[in-house]
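User: quick one, sequence for these tokens?
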């Protein structure tokens, strides 16, 4: 993603600091690099339109990701009306199965759990920042991320190997 030339200093600074994380959040949420780029641009357009409403006492990253979350919600609403199609991106053969499994596992999470997990793992937000961005509480965020991690672990890790049944040595035949 290129920098924003001619943008107000706040917008340019926010773009430089948070643009890559916002893009990664959308990339993982949509599995479409083109959509991720478009949605990232929409975030910073909204920021430039609403920069006057930003209060420096707010957590900056949480404010940016609250906007990103709203952009993603709008995008998903449009997608359900048939405006866009989600598709898997081409991936190198050795990682293709893992990538598809991860996308499928993420898609299987409850919406709030997936969102909190992606904001933490991809966006790099703290639990407090996620709570602000999602208009939730820190304990709720902690629970959502915990549930998401458990579900992902269950879906992505192979089942444990079956242990051999214990065979008594010498005992009962005598």
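Assistant:
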């Amino acid at each position: 993603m290129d920098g924003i030339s001619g943008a107000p200093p706040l917008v340019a600074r926010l773009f430089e600091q948070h643009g890559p994380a916002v893009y990664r959040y959308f990339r993982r949420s949509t599995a479409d690099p083109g959509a991720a780029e478009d949605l990232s641009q929409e975030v910073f357009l909204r920021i430039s339109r609403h920069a006057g409403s930003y209060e420096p006492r707010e957590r900056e990253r949480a404010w940016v990701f609250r906007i990103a979350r709203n952009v993603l919600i709008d995008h998903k609403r449009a997608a359900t009306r048939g405006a866009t199609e989600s598709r898997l991106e081409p991936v190198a053969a050795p990682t293709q199965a893992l990538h598809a499994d991860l996308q499928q596992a993420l898609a299987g999470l409850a919406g709030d759990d997936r969102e909190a997990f992606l904001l933490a793992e991809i966006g790099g937000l703290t639990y407090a920042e996620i709570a602000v961005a999602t208009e939730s509480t820190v304990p709720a965020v902690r629970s959502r991320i915990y549930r998401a991690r458990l579900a992902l672990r269950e879906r992505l890790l192979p089942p444990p190997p079956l242990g051999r049944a214990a065979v008594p040595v010498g005992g009962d035949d005598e």
